[in-house]
Amino acid sequence: MTATTLQAYRAGLLHFHADPAFAEHAHAWHEDGLLIVADGKVVAAGDYAQLVGTLPPDTPAADYRGKVITPGFIDVHVHYPQTDMIASPAPGLLPWLEQYTFPTERAFADPSHAAGVAEFFLDELLRCGTTTAMVYCTVHPQSVDAFFTASEARGLRMIAGKVLMDRNCPDFLRDTAESGARETEELIRRWHRHERSLYAITPRFAPTSTEAQMAVTGELANAYPDTFLQTHVSENEAECGWVKTLYPQARSYLDVYDRYGMLRPRAVFGHCIWLDGEDRARMAATGSAAAVCPTSNLFLGSGLFDFEKADQAGMRMALATDVGAGTSFSMLQTMNEAYKVARLKGSYLPALRMFYLSTLGAARSLHLDDTIGSFAAGREADFIVLDPQATPLLARRTANSDSLEELLFALALLGDDRAVAATYSAGRLVHERRD
Ligand code: GUN
Ligand code: ZN
After folding, report:
1. How many whole angstroms from 281 Cα to the centroid of ligand 2?
2. Closest C-alpha to ligand 1, atom 7
3. Local structure of 374: helix, strand or coil
4. What angle do CA 222, 284, 340 make, to 5 degrees?
5. CB under 6 Å to ligand 1: residues?
6. CA-CA-CA-CA torsion for 361, 367, 368, 369, nearest 10 degrees?
7. What's the CA gap between 105 and 202, in Å, rounded?
8. What atom of ligand 1 comes closest to residue 235's alpha carbon?
9. Tell me, what's the ipTM?
10. pLDDT, tens only, 157-199
């Protein structure tokens, strides 16, 4: 039997055990903290002075004093094939899909192209401190194989799936109800719960699936209840109007998915901007979650997510980049824009809440909070080291921050990949910033 390898990390330590919007003591903050890890899992997190005595004297300890360790960020909605077309301008969602997205995704029929993009994408996630993402691949099953092969080689916990689409898209990107379901089932068998990989059934959005494909997709979601499901809903007004003409019998856009049994735990719906009260109540009642994508929504002019109404309904939600419509891989930059979206809707998102929504809140949205998202004992040791002195401006601003909230707010508003000094996955260093 191999001996347990203990590792320790000294820094400011922040994590959550509840949602700060609904609980008074939702977070743990240890200004001089210690995180203890063994065999890729958290052993303990607390005050340095209290925990250091529990360690054997020869335990290796990394000294990150002056920096802040948090659980790794979780991005619950991102398209890896769109990495190379980030920042492509178009007047709204539907022209953007036609002009850039579909032609770009065509290239993923080639496994070596897919593998190259997957490597760059994962580098970028880790540089930004994102240790888990819920990822759209393309319609090509080989794009999923390339992605999980790359993420498993790095030991990452990732969720991904093959896009299903059999209408209203170019012929070169179409599957059929039958082939899409068969390929999805093969991919579930190959990848779901293989190492740290998890599979997401991925109908792109209602307009690009026939009713036959929606029906078999709902059956798959039901047959494999512990898989994930991801799609887009109510992102853009033109799209919502289109869905009305395609599915006239449905009460709302979200109701299209509901009718096919796709609202369930581990189902994550991208955007959720134009939902009504009944939709939000269904999201909450079914344990589904919203992926809130502010940089994408502002970039495409899609609209403003209503955090207050989502909270009133008790919806699960988490922040997400939605690259390539999203304009940054950084969850810090995503918080920056989320804060402004909330302000424009007349509500307020404290920095603590935004960090929650990118860590434990995201894990809860995915029903993975027993595995990732906090430093509770036994959680996988995916964590990041944030540097409040990463840039001259951050250093100057955080030198006079009077509270944890001010420190986190400065990191969210002014930080990006430069603020991530190191990223660890299952206790292994997977990114270190070059100074
Ligand atoms: N709706 C359908 N496909 C997409 C996509 O790739 N990106 C975004 N933002 N919305 C979509
Ligand atoms: Zn998307």
Report:
1. 23
2. 325
3. coil
4. 120
5. 79, 93, 97, 101, 204-205, 232, 235, 296, 322, 325
6. 50
7. 15
8. 10
9. 0.99
10. 999 999 999 999 999 999 999 999 999 999 999 999 999 999 9
CA-to-CA separations, 162 to 20, 141, 332, 434, in angstroms, rounded = 35, 6, 28, 34
Which domains, from first to last, does the chain contain?
3-71+373-432 (2.30.40.10), 73-349 (3.20.20.140)
* 322 CA closest ligand 1 atom index: 9
CA nearest ligand 1 atom 3, residue: 204
pLDDT band at 251 (very low <50, low <70, confident <90, very high): very high
Instruction: Supply the residue whose CA is at minimum distance from atom 1 of ligand 1.
Output: 232
Strand ordering across the sheet containing 6-16? 41-47, 27-38, 6-16, 61-71, 383-386, 420-425, 428-432
Using N-to-C axis directions, what is the helix angle for 177-191 and 141-153, rounded to 10°? 20
User: 165, 205, 321: which to mutate for ligand 1, most atoms within 8 A of CB?
Assistant: 205
- Please state the separation of Cα 294 from the chain's center in Å: 13
Residue bearing tokens 């990463």:
390
In angstroms, what is the span from residue 256 Cα to ligand 1's centroid?
17
349 and 307 in contact (C-beta within 8 Å)?
Answer: yes
Confirm whether pTM is higher than 0.95.
yes
322-355 residues labelled b (16+ CB within 10 A) or e (exposed): bbbbbbbbbbbbbbbbbbebbeebeeebbbbbbb
Ligand nearest 203 Cα, by number?
1
pLDDT at 1: 41
Buried b vs exposed e over 247-258: b needs ≥16 C-beta within 10 Å? beebebbbbbbb
Tell me the C-alpha distance between 73 and 338, whole Å. Answer: 15
Closest-lying ligand 1 atom to the alpha carbon of residue 79 = 6
* Tens-digit pLDDT profile for residues 369-380: 999 999 999 999
Tokens encoding 132: 């888990």
Ligand 2 centroid to Cα of residue 271, in Å, is 8
312-348: pLDDT as tens digits: 999 999 999 999 999 999 999 999 999 999 999 999 9
pLDDT in tens, 78-108: 999 999 999 999 999 999 999 999 999 999 9
